[in-house]
Design goal:
Helix content: 25-40%
Shape: globular
Number of domains: 2
Strand order of the largest sheet: 5-4-3-2-1-6-7
CATH superfamily of the largest domain: Creatinase/methionine aminopeptidase superfamily
Radius of gyration: 24 Å
Order of helices and strands: HEHEEHEHEHEHEHHHEEEEHHEEEE
Mean pLDDT: 96
Number of helices: 11
CATH topology of the largest domain: Creatine Amidinohydrolase
Structural class: alpha/beta
Largest sheet: 7 strands, mixed
CATH architecture of the largest domain: Alpha-Beta Complex
Number of strands: 15
C-alpha cells in the first residue's frame, strides 16, 4: 500500500471569509472561477480527465452578499465524482457536455446515464435535473442571475470566459488578485496538506540518495527521485522535479537545469535539491545541499554553517507585517557578521506556496505592484538561500515555513545542515 495513498479530503479547504474581504475591498459583487486550481480551492472538485488548455467544463460562482450559497457547475460526466469526494457546496448544477450524441435529439433522461446508484440520497441531487442546461454558458448565466449578480462588477479568473457569457449588465473584472488574496493565507486543512506534501519530498530525497553509487549519472539520479516520489504516492510533472542546474568544475553560474543536462555525480560534488511536486494537488518545494559521498570541508563548511545561521535568523523574523526586503537584510547581515566573503552575492528570496508556487497578489487594491510584500499569519513561505560557488563550494538551503506571530515554523524535519553520505 502506498504510504501516502489517496484519501477523502475535508469538505472545505478554502478561506471563504478572506475571499469575501477581497471582494469588498475591490468593490466586486461576485467572482466566477473556472481554472482548475481555483475550482479545487473553492469546491474540492478535481477533474481527472481535464488538461490545462482545454475548454473548462466547470465553474464556481460566489456572490459577495451570499458567500454561504456558492453554486458549483460541472459537466454531466463529472457529477458522479462528487459522491466519493464530498463538497461543502450544496447547490450543484450540471450541463450537457461532449459525451452526449449530436446525431440524436436530446432526451429528458440523458442525465440519468451519468448518475450512479445512491445519488438520490445526497441532498444536492434534487437540483441536478431541474438545472440541467444545454451548455456551461447557459448554466453559469442562470447561476449568476439566481445569486443576484446578473449585473454589476464580477471578477473572473478567466476573463475570456466572462466575455463569453455576454451578459450586458456585467462588468468583467480580472479575478486573479482577489483569488490570490484569499489563497495566500492558508486554512488549517491546507496547512496539513502542505505538511503532508513536504514529507513526501523529504522522504523521496533521502530514498534517492541511498541509490547513489560511483559512476552514477545525473539523469539516472533524477529518475531515482521521480520513482521514489511515485512509490510514495506523490506526483511530479513533465519535464521533471529537480530545478537547479549543476555547472561542473570551476563554473559558479547560477542556472536551472534544462532536463538535458547530464554529468557524472562524483564524490565531493555539491548537489542542490530544489524539488517540485504535488500531493492532493498541493505543492511541495525545497530541499538542501547534498555532499555526494562526503561532507562539507574547509571554506565550504563555513559557508554551510553560516547559511544555517542565516536561515535560523530569517525564520525567527518571519512574523506578520515583516516585508521581504527586511527578511533579505536579516539573512545577509548574518553573512557579513560572520566574515563570509561575497555576502552581497548570496541569493535570498521568497514566494508563497499552496496550490501553486506563488499564491500572492500581483497588485494591491490600489494597483501598486506587490513586489516587496508583507507576511501575514498562516502564509506558507519557502525560504531560499543560495551561496553561489563551484561544484565543491555552492551551498543551498530551502526550508518551507509557516508564518506565525512567534516566528516561522519549519516543515522539514531534517534540520538545516547539508545532507552527507549515507
Amino acid at each position: 500500500m502506498l504510504e501516502y495513498s489517496p484519501k477523502v479530503l475535508p469538505k472545505q479547504l478554502c478561506n471563504i471569509e478572506r475571499l469575501v474581504d477581497a471582494l469588498k475591498m475591490r468593490n466586486l459583487d461576485g467572482v466566477v472561477v473556472n481554472s482548475p486550481y481555483n475550482m479545487y480551492y473553492l469546491s474540492g472538485f478535481k477533474g481527472i480527465a481535464h488538461k490545462s488548455d482545454e475548454p473548462r467544463p466547470y465553474a464556481v460562482v460566489v456572490a459577495r452578499d451570499q458567500p454561504d450559497h456558492p453554486i458549483l457547475v460541472v459537466a454531466d460526466y463529472y457529477v458522479g465524482s462528487l459522491i466519493s469526494q464530498p463538497t461543502w457546496i450544496e447547490d450543484i448544477r450540471t450541463f450537457r457536455a461532449v459525451m452526449l450524441p449530436l446525431d440524436l435529439p436530446a432526451q429528458e433522461d440523458d442525465l440519468d446515464r451519468f448518475l450512479p446508484d445512491g445519488i438520490d440520497d445526497v441532498t444536492w441531487s434534487a437540483n441536478l435535473r431541474c438545472h440541467y442546461a444545454m451548455n456551461i454558458v447557459e448554466s453559469c448565466r442562470e447561476a449568476l442571475i439566481d445569486l443576484g449578480i446578473g449585473s454589476g462588477r464580477v471578477a473572473f479568473d478567466d476573463q475570456r470566459f466572462g466575455h463569453q457569457l455576454a451578459m450586458d449588465g456585467i462588468e468583467v473584472v480580472d479575478g486573479y488578485d482577489p483569488m490570490m488574496y484569499a489563497r495566500c493565507v492558508k486554512t488549517d486543512a491546507e496547512i496539513e496538506l502542505l505538511k503532508r506534501a513536504t514529507s513526501v519530498n523529504e522522504q523521496a530525497i533521502c530514498r534517492a540518495i541511498k541509490t547513489w553509487d560511483r559512476g552514477m549519472m545525473w539523469q539516472d539520479f533524477n529518475h531515482e527521485y521521480h520513482r521514489a516520489v511515485v512509490d510514495l504516492g506523490g506526483f511530479v510533472r513533465d519535464p521533471g522535479a529537480m530545478v537547479w542546474g549543476h555547472p561542473c568544475g570551476a563554473d559558479s553560474a547560477v542556472t536551472l537545469q534544462s532536463r538535458l543536462d547530464d554529468f557524472e555525480m562524483r564524490s565531493g560534488v555539491h548537489i542542490l535539491f530544489d524539488c517540485h511536486g504535488t500531493l492532493d494537488l498541493y505543492c511541495w518545494d525545497g530541499g538542501k545541499t547534498w555532499i555526494v559521498d562526503g561532507e562539507a570541508a574547509g571554506d565550504a563548511k563555513q559557508y554551510a554553517d553560516v547559511t544555517a545561521l542565516a536561515a535560523t535568523a530569517v525564520m525567527e523574523s518571519m512574523r506578520p507585517g515583516v516585508t521581504i526586503s527586511e527578511l533579505q537584510a536579516v539573512g545577509r547581515s548574518v553573512y557579513r557578521k560572520n566574515g563570509v566573503a561575497r555576502a552581497d552575492e548570496v541569493l535570498i528570496f521568497f514566494h508563497g506556496l499552496g496550490l501553486s508556487h506563488m499564491e500572492l497578489e500581483q497588485h494591491s487594491v490600489d494597483g501598486v505592484p506587490n513586489h516587496d510584500w508583507r507576511l501575514v499569519s498562516n502564509m506558507i513561505v519557502p525560504i531560499h538561500i543560495l551561496y553561489p560557488g563551484d561544484e565543491h563550494h555552492r551551498i543551498w538551503l530551502e526550508e518551507v515555513v509557516q508564518v506565525t506571530p512567534d516566528g516561522g515554523e519549519p516543515f522539514f524535519s531534517w534540520g538545516l545542515d547539508p545532507l552527507i553520505a549515507v
